[in-house]
Every structure is written in structure tokens, then in C-alpha cells.
Design a protein that fits this description.
Keywords: Isomerase. It catalyses: a uridine in RNA = a pseudouridine in RNA. The protein is built from 6 helices and 15 strands. It is α+β, with helices and mostly antiparallel strands. The protein folds into 3 domains: about 60 residues; about 70 residues, 2-Layer Sandwich (Pseudouridine synthase); about 130 residues, Pseudouridine synthase. The strands form 3 sheets. Strands 4, 5, 6, 7, 8, 9, 12, 13, 14 and 15 form a 10-stranded mixed beta sheet that branches. A 3-stranded antiparallel beta sheet has the order 1-3-2.
Length: about 300
């Protein structure tokens, strides 16, 4: 069972019933039903009808006394992890380039999730989102399966936002900012790759140029959808392939892919708090970015 105890503080002048509050917290309807019929939600240690108004400083106890939607268990890994943020329920890790986010087979033990399995010792990690093996940067991980559906809803509502930095080769001119809205599907000629195609899945990327010279640009990227290889495919399709991309850039690879997940924004579950987590590129990546741009400005 997973238990969460919250001291409620209303946002501005909001007046919410228990039902309204559970909806605001993005708790799935089936779980709301189970909390009600099992009387597993308490206000100041007592069960109350769902139309009860929740008051400032009320103590809300949620007992998730039912099976989660899915279980994820991994073999223990052997590498240390770079923890950027941690609390009782979640973990944000700075993944290195070249490491998979999760194993493809249950017998594998060399992914980030395997390493987090070791780090958590008596608990298990639950994947909220992933980044490509070649990409480095921030990954949000839950310590309980009961938060995964909540974060999935944050992803759908764009409350959970992911921001990246990339260095791209300018094979064609790039506007200072824009939105790329092009569907992406499986490349029938190469199972490793994706491509822009009319009958693909909706994929939307926002970008802004931070610095550029006549050959390269440093761009900030925001994912509005989360398709496999989305940033790499969108940028390459427009003539701005990411430097050192082995799949979508025809130039020889010279180091790690210059794509870094540097910022995560999400709402702390069961609260009104907006959490913003940022990380800086590694020294090696920073030096490589500067080398391509011949820039000395501080990277945001």
C-alpha cells in the first residue's frame, strides 16, 4: 500500500470539494471510486462524503490500498547515478550519453533504470518518460507506481514540460524561433529510424535559436508531444541535423550527440507547487558546444 498525507492549502480563493480536489490532482477516476467505496481517503482522520468542502490546513490522508496499473522491476545495475533532485516520491537523474533509459529485455542490467534500482535499495523505480540512448540529461523517475498515471496526465496536459539544448548543423537557413508540426512514423527502410510522413503520429516541437554562426546554431527545444526521436527527426527534416547524430546526420560522428535535456517543469503531485529542475551540460559537452559556436556566453 502507498500512503500519502497532505496538509491542504488552497490555491488563491479556490473552494473545492473532495471530488474536485482529486480531479485537480489528476487521480484516475477508477482510483477515485476505490478511494470512496473503500473509505481510503480521510479528512483529519475521518472519512467524509465526496461533496465535503476541503478547508485550509485540513490533513488529507490517501491510502492507495489497491493494485497499481503496472509493476516495473529491474535487475540491479552497477553504475553510479547523478541525482539532481530527490524527495520521498520522485527522483530526477542526469543521464549520461550512451546509456539506455530502460532495458529492452528483463535480463539486461546496463540501463539507467537498472542503476536506479540499485540506488533505491529497498524500493523500485518507475519510469515516467524516457530519453534516447544517445541523448544526455534529465529523466524523471517515480519511486511508486501510483504516481505514474498522474504524471502521464501532466504530460498530456502539457503541465510536465521538457526542454532541451541542441547544436545543429545549418544545412539550410533557420528562423530565430518557430513551431515544427509534422507527423512522425516508422521508417520502413530502417527499423532503427523514424521519419516525417503524412499518416504518422502527431508531433509538435517548439524551438528558439540562442546563438548561431554561419555553420551551426545552439537551439532551445520544447517537446509538446513525445514521439520516438522526435527532436532529431524534426530538426533533420528541416535541414538542421543535430551534431553527432549517427542516424539523422550524414556527417561523420565526432563525439557524443549534442542534445541535452536540461530542464524539467512539472507539478508536485498532490500540491499546487510547480517544480522546475535544471541541469548544466557536462564540462566536455559544454566545451564541445563552445568549440562549434566559438562562443563564451553562459549557457542557459
Amino acid at each position: 500500500m502507498y500512503q500519502k498525507i497532505i496538509t491542504y492549502h488552497p490555491d488563491s480563493n479556490e473552494i473545492l470539494t473532495i471530488r474536485d480536489l482529486l480531479k485537480k490532482w489528476l487521480i484516475p477516476k477508477k482510483w477515485q471510486h476505490l478511494l470512496r467505496i473503500q473509505r481510503d481517503i480521510l479528512i483529519n482522520d475521518h472519512y467524509q462524503p465526496f461533496n465535503t468542502i476541503v478547508k485550509n490546513n485540513d490533513i488529507i490522508t490517501l491510502n492507495f490500498n489497491f493494485p497499481p496499473r503496472s509493476e516495473q522491476h529491474y535487475l540491479p545495475g552497477s553504475d553510479d547515478i547523478d541525482v539532481v533532485f530527490e524527495d520521498d516520491d520522485i527522483l530526477v537523474v542526469n543521464k549520461t550519453a550512451g546509456k539506455k533509459t530502460h532495458p529492452n529485455l528483463k535480463t539486461e542490467s546496463d540501463s539507467l533504470m537498472n542503476d536506479v534500482e540499485t540506488y533505491l535499495k529497498n524500493r523500485h523505480p518507475y519510469m515516467v518518460h524516457r530519453i534516447d540512448m544517445e541523448t544526455s540529461g534529465l529523466v524523471l523517475i517515480s519511486k511508486t507506481p501510483y504516481l505514474v498515471p498522474i504524471f502521464n496526465r501532466q504530460l498530456s496536459s502539457k503541465t510536465l514540460q521538457r526542454e532541451y539544448l541542441a547544436v545543429v548543423k545549418l544545412n539550410s537557413p533557420i528562423p530565430e524561433k518557430g513551431t515544427i508540426d509534422l507527423p512522425i512514423g516508422q521508417d520502413s527502410k530502417d527499423v532503427r529510424k523514424r521519419k516525417v510522413m503524412p499518416d504518422g503520429l502527431s508531433a509538435i516541437t517548439k524551438y528558439q535559436v540562442l546563438e548561431k554562426n554561419f555553420q551551426y546554431a545552439l537551439v532551445k527545444l520544447n517537446l509538446l508531444t513525445g514521439r520516438t526521436h522526435q527532436l532529431r527527426v524534426h530538426l533533420a527534416y528541416n535541414g538542421w541535423p543535430i551534431v553527432n547524430d549517427p542516424l539523422y546526420n550524414n556527417e561523420p560522428k565526432n563525439g557524443n550527440l549534442l542534445l541535452f535535456a536540461h530542464k524539467l517543469t512539472f507539478r508536485q503531485p498532490f500540491s499546487n507547487n510547480l517544480q522546475i529542475i535544471e541541469a548544466k551540460p557536462s564540462k566536455n559537452m559544454y566545451n564541445l558546444i563552445c568549440a562549434y559556436l566559438k562562443a563564451t556566453k553562459k549557457l542557459t
